[in-house]
Amino acid sequence: MSRLPTVLTRLLGIDLPIVQAGMSWASSCSALPLAVSRAGGLGVVAAGPMRIADLTRVLDEMAGGTDAPWAVNLPLNRAGVDEVIELLLARKPPVLIASQGGPSRYLRRFHDAGIRCLQVVAGTVHARKSAEAGVDGLIVVGAEAGGHPPPGMVGTQVLVRAVVKAVPEVPVIASGGVADGAGLAAMLALGAGAAQFGTRFIASDEATVHPDYKAAVLGASVEDTRTVGHGLGLIRGIANSFTARMAELEQSAADLDVRRKAFHASTLRDAALGDIAEGKVEAGQSAGIIGEVLPAAEIVERIVAEYGEARDRLP
Question: What is the rounded distance in angstroms from the CA atom of residue 284 to the CA atom of residue 173?
Fold first, then answer.
């Protein structure tokens, strides 16, 4: 197996600076995270939409399926988060990735349990606060990302560089617009210790979303995503009837309650089950540079090969 050592790979005990994003429904399973971790990256279970019984089963499958490090992504604003926290402290995943809330809620207890803790941030202020709290690393999400891009819509290249300069003592994982080895090389050149790949792994055999969702990713150009839900929990997704309706409401300055009703009438689960017209087909701009669905392990291998090619092109 190839190894690309960085400060981040050494921190987490992984071979490659490749992190599979925790994506609700797509990686709310063991198949995709196991494949990525076995290939040398960091596979991530998305705990956000999972019931306790399902999460318990998946955590056991992860622990029994690999000796390599893996992670759980936990949105701190999800319903029943305290019960999930207790489950994770009992099962002790090697790495916790927390989002949608600050480190004070979880950090001390997870550190006491020997769990590495990474915090998702979208700006330098939050990055500094998280660093001061004592997180082990940061995942910096730029505007190109699918799912929930930063409200300020700062691009990944600028945001990663700003955070690296603001908190040079904390390892950074760059996320947003990265889909291949050239993107990985670019993020490492900016000072990140790894890159996070989300949309690229939606287009994997193991991602547990409907084939039509994967086909929508493959069919999208770099211009075919939209950001909607301003003031309601901004998302980036592939343009469809839902995004068109939301954009019309936003452009017409419709009442907030009207926009909220329309926004919440559509869900990511709808898309994951195959409704790509009315569901939230969350994906990043990198969908436009993804050409085929592949096994996750092959995706990892290709990223490593492409990284080498990109490195060799540099003067």
Answer: 17
Residues 204, 173 within the same domain: yes
Residues of the chain with pLDDT under 70: 1
User: Among 120, 83, 81, which residue's Cα sits nearest to residue 102?
Assistant: 120
What DSSP string runs through 151-183? TT---HHHHHHHHHHH-TTS-EEEESS--SHHH
Q: How many residues are listed for the chain in this entry? A: 315
What pLDDT score does 108 carry? Answer: 96
How far apart are alpha carbons 22 and 34 in whole angstroms? Answer: 13
Same domain, 215 and 161: no
User: In terms of DSSP H, where are the helices of the chain?
Assistant: 7-12, 31-38, 52-65, 81-91, 107-112, 124-133, 156-166, 181-189, 199-202, 211-219, 241-251, 256-265, 268-272, 296-313
Q: How many domains does the chain have?
A: 2
CB 99 within 8 A of CB 122: no
Q: Is the pTM of this model over 0.85?
A: yes
281, part of any domain: no
* C-beta separation of 120 from 97 below 8 A: yes
- Same domain? For 26 and 106 the reply is yes
Evaluate whether 181 touches 308 at the Cβ level (below 8 Å). yes
Q: What is the pLDDT of residue 14?
A: 98
Domain extent for 218: 211-272
- Residue 67: C-alpha distances to residues 14, 70, 106, 153 (Å): 11, 9, 25, 38
What pLDDT was estimated at residue 1? 53
Regarding whether 117 and 165 lie in a shared domain, the answer is yes
